[in-house]
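Q: Here's a chain of 390 amino acids. Please give me its 3D structure as tokens.
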Amino acid sequence: MKITRIRTAVGPIQSEIRNAYISFATMTINLVAVETDVIRNGKPVIGYGFSSNGRYAGTAIIEDRFTPRILAADPADYTNTETESLNPRAVWSIFMTNEKPGGHGDRAHAAGALDMAVWDAAAKIAEKPLWRLLSDEYNNGEFDEQILVYPGGGYYYPGKELDGLRAEMESYREQGYAYVKMKIGGADLALDTKRIEAVIDVVGNGKYLAADANGRFDLETALAYARAMEPYGLFWYEEAGDPLDYRLNAVLSEHYSGSIATGENLFSHHDGRNLLRYGGMRPDRDWIQLDPALSYGLTEYLRFLEVIDQHGWSRRRLIPHGGHQFALNIAAGLQLGGSESYPGVFQPYGGFADNIPIENGYVRLPDDPGIGVELKPEMLGEMRRLLGYD
């Protein structure tokens, strides 16, 4: 088998919303299509990939560095000779050839989108959903039939404030979600406290609410919010300070008895390991949120799972950031703690397949081959248009 072409494009996901740090008014993501000469259902297999929200597109990295290396490689170097199928980990090693370690910035996001497309193609060639492929090859055939999901929301919409926030959270409950997430840190503590209480009124108990500061706080502010939020018994307190300020996170964990979540802005298994070493994370209650689509892909995420095992953590304490089909497949096939969702924002890329119902906060995955891009027709159509197919 052979990879015959790789297409890239920039996908706009502009939205007039903001968190505590950034506006999404000009946000873009990487789009990738990996074409092969393998025929399934009378057509060549194409794998599709895209970045998660929050980082801008870096398609030149894929076009100028990664793609030439893959297309120049001997197909035998990335083919599984026993099954005559695509080996995503071998493809990753090829496109990362001659790349220095460290400096995990836009390169990590570009690699993540490309890696997603390669895994999508590999699963389609194997005629399996990605979750089943991961279960068979990396989890002794075990998988979760139901996956805990929660919507990432509660942004600061201009003019929306408390009434709009309540309406947004009520819509998530109507869609079948039990747990929800909201943003904090984009207002002062007094207003954010009112916003938290407004959401708790909707969901019924603080244990169903996660609060996300998006790395906004210094230590003093992080601790002030911790003191104010601790009585609510929240699902978690997320990314209080800069993602690389492990000391801040460690001090926070000493003073906050509730659960802490962080990791979506760490972009390698090395960064994840440092978080476990120095960030004060507690394996009995805290959550780690590395995003495969932003951190060199599933191939790198498998390395992070090895780190987790070495440190004695359960995979159930992992909930990938991202809010899309890729992370959902990974959570199911590798039996993680759950997956984020974006049913209301970052469309058409956010959220899951159109035919997947949310029931009591859980979803079941379909059996269609790949990661499920084809199960979101609007997203597939937009991707194909931007990638130059239609």
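Q: Can you summarize the key feature?
A: The chain has two domains: 3-127, 137-377.
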